[in-house]
Amino acid sequence: MNDFMKGRNGADELTIVMGFAGIVIAMIGSIARIQWLSWIAIAVIVIGVLRGLSKNIDARHKENEAFVAATANVPGLGKFVASLGGGATAANASRAAGTSMEDFERAKRTAKKMWKGRKTTTYLKCPNCGQMLSVPKGKGKIRVTCPKCHAKMETRS
User: Fold this and answer.
1) What does the alpha-carbon distance between residue 134 and residue 146 come to, in Å, rounded to a whole number?
2) pLDDT of residue 136
3) Which of 21, 30, 79, 156 has its CA 20 to 30 A from that of 109?
4) pLDDT per residue over 28-60, tens digit each?
5) Helix or strand or coil: residue 28?
6) pLDDT digits over 68-116, tens only?
7) E-only strand ranges, 2-156
8) Cβ proximity of 44 and 18 under 8 Å
């Protein structure tokens, strides 16, 4: 699937909103028993899917930017669209840069290391910055300082 989506637009804010709108229109059409609303909903969803599969990334990016700019000042919708942007746009940028496989490999190495040291080491996450910390097991109550943010915490090892 990753190979198929390389060089394609993917799910941006406009595509996601089109999917939501299509579902809402379909629900209204089926509840009200209005057949033509269901056809409109299908058309909106199909256009959204085609946008996601499009290889003309520059044109889709311009459309998406215009949509985000147009909805920025609409109460409620602007915040909703902005919240979609952080996840979808970042995921698309990550996928385009090819870092998702690197992140996967890093997580795999970390999991392997944690599995090896599971009998001698306790792993915990810094509550302040999320940094993974390793402390020796069996030392009782100890005070740990995060090397990244220098937060101090007490824990049992």
Assistant:
1) 10
2) 92
3) 156
4) 998 988 889 989 999 999 998 888 888 888 888
5) helix
6) 888 888 787 777 777 776 544 444 444 444 456 777 888 888 889 989 9
7) 121-125, 132-136, 141-145, 152-156
8) yes
Across residues 129-139, what is the average pLDDT?
89
Q: Hey, what amino acid is at 6?
A: K
Distances in whole angstroms, Cα of residue 156 to Cα of each of 88, 122, 135, 138:
39, 9, 10, 8
DSSP 155: E
- Phi then psi for residue 146, to 5 deg, are -70, 130
Whether the CB-CB separation of 13 and 67 falls below 8 Å is answered with yes
Written as one string, the DSSP assignment of 115-145 is HHTTTTEEEEE-TTT--EEEEETT--EEEEE
